[in-house]
Write a structure and sequence with these properties.
Layout (H helix, E strand, L loop, with lengths): L3 E7 L7 H12 L4 E6 L19 H12 L2 E5 L9 H11 L10 E7 L7 H13 L3 E2 L5 E3 L15 H18 L7
Parallel strand pairs: 1-2, 1-3, 3-4, 4-5, 4-6
Length: 187
């Protein structure tokens, strides 16, 4: 089996984001045979405008779409903004979903999220699941990785220090691998 290529997207543009830290933790916990590439450029994407989506999209959009096309799957970590997904993440999905190739249709996607609040990113993840279902992505259903009170689950250097969260991330990555290659479920 070839190495699986997972493109990881953080819905947070913040430099010290717990969600980006969650993706870095996933990269250290990922199963053998997978590579997780973290995209740090969602903030470069212009706001979606159908007038710009005319066969020659802006360079950052073309590059983003190419990265999604090359990925076997996506791993998205989202914070919660006003009980939903952040604007930058929704914008990225809009650009990806309108590509003529249907980049997200059938693409396996796993979702996680971290928030300092008592409910984690549960409402943002619910909204994200609805968005991804609408564009035809194949979303991993379980486990749900909603890291609440995330400021207590990471060190000051943004290293994951919570074994329970680490176990959930491992399970999520395994479930995503099984979505890509269903026969790996028996292993």
């Amino acid at each position: 089996m070839n190495e699986l290529n997972i493109l990881a997207l953080s819905g947070s543009l913040r430099a010290d984001s717990h969600n980006t830290a969650l993706l870095h933790a996933a990269r250290t916990l990922n199963p053998a045979g997978t590579a997780i590439d973290i995209d740090h450029d969602l903030g470069r994407l212009p706001l979606y405008n159908q007038d710009l989506d005319d066969g020659t999209p802006p360079a950052p959009v073309a590059e983003f779409r190419a990265r999604i096309a090359m990925a076997d799957a996506l791993l998205i970590a989202t914070p919660e903004h006003n009980a939903s997904v952040p604007a930058a993440l929704k914008n990225a999905i809009d650009w990806a979903s309108t590509a003529p190739e249907g980049l997200l249709r059938g693409k396996p996607v796993a979702i996680a999220g971290a928030s300092p609040g008592p409910f984690g990113s549960v409402r943002a993840q619910l909204a994200l699941r609805q968005i991804l279902a609408a564009v035809g992505a194949e979303v991993v259903v379980k486990p749900e990785v909603t890291v609440f009170r995330c400021d207590t689950r990471f060190t000051g250097e943004r290293e994951l220090n919570d074994p329970y969260t680490a176990d959930l991330l491992r399970e999520l990555l395994h479930a995503l691998s099984c979505k890509i290659h269903p026969y790996t479920a028996a292993q």
